[in-house]
């Protein structure tokens, strides 16, 4: 189990909204909000941001066991989702910086620098994840980044490292090649993520 947690740690280490614009242009006079406008063919059209409303069917449970599993999934999601978001940001930054580097030597040095920074900041937290939470994080990283954990490791650390960490993950019943399937297998999880993103969990 300890080795699997370090696999997750290694994986993690491997890698102004529209509303604000509108808010800055709004003027409030005597309690009335004056919106920015655009004139098109003589028609004056106001600009207003309409908040997205999320609605899913009420979930029914056939047993107390199913309800407990549902609650456990929510709890684990709240624990690991922030790490998946951080992974998305860090990998995006790394991808952009990698393109600006001239050779593989500079890229390797940069990858090691980022790894050290992330290890210093997150190692203590990530090694505390359970195996279930680690599996969930692998799925969420694929959802947030658009690439599997295996592909990320392969791109950053090479094929040998990717194969090694995949073998370790498989020993503990996980798969770094796991993909997020919002249409079927991960439909419930995707709904919970959307609710969580809107502050409804």
Give an account of the 3D structure.
With 201 residues, the protein is mainly alpha-helical. It has one domain. 64% of the residues lie in helices and 7% in strands. The protein has eight helices and four strands. A two-stranded antiparallel ribbon has the order 1-2. Strands 3-4 form a two-stranded antiparallel ribbon. The longest helix is centred in the middle third of the chain and has 37 residues. The radius of gyration is 22 Å and the shape is flat. About 5% of the residues have low confidence.
Task: Tell me the layout of helices and strands.
Blueprint: H1 2-13, H2 18-25, E1 27-29, E2 32-34, E3 37-40, E4 43-46, H3 64-100, H4 104-126, H5 131-145, H6 149-157, H7 159-171, H8 187-197
Helix pairs in contact: 1-4, 1-7, 3-5, 3-8, 6-7
Largest sheet, order of strands side by side? 1-2
What does the average pLDDT come to?
80
How does the major sheet shape up? 2 strands, antiparallel
Strand content: 5-15%
Count of separate DSSP helical elements: 8
Number of self-contained structural domains: 1
Helix content: 55-70%
The total count of strands amounts to: 4
Low-pLDDT segments: 15-24
Whole-Å distance between the termini? Answer: 30 Å
Q: What's the helix-strand series?
A: HHEEEEHHHHHH
User: Shape from CA axes?
Assistant: flat
Structural class: mainly alpha
**Using only CA atoms, what is the Rg?**
22 Å
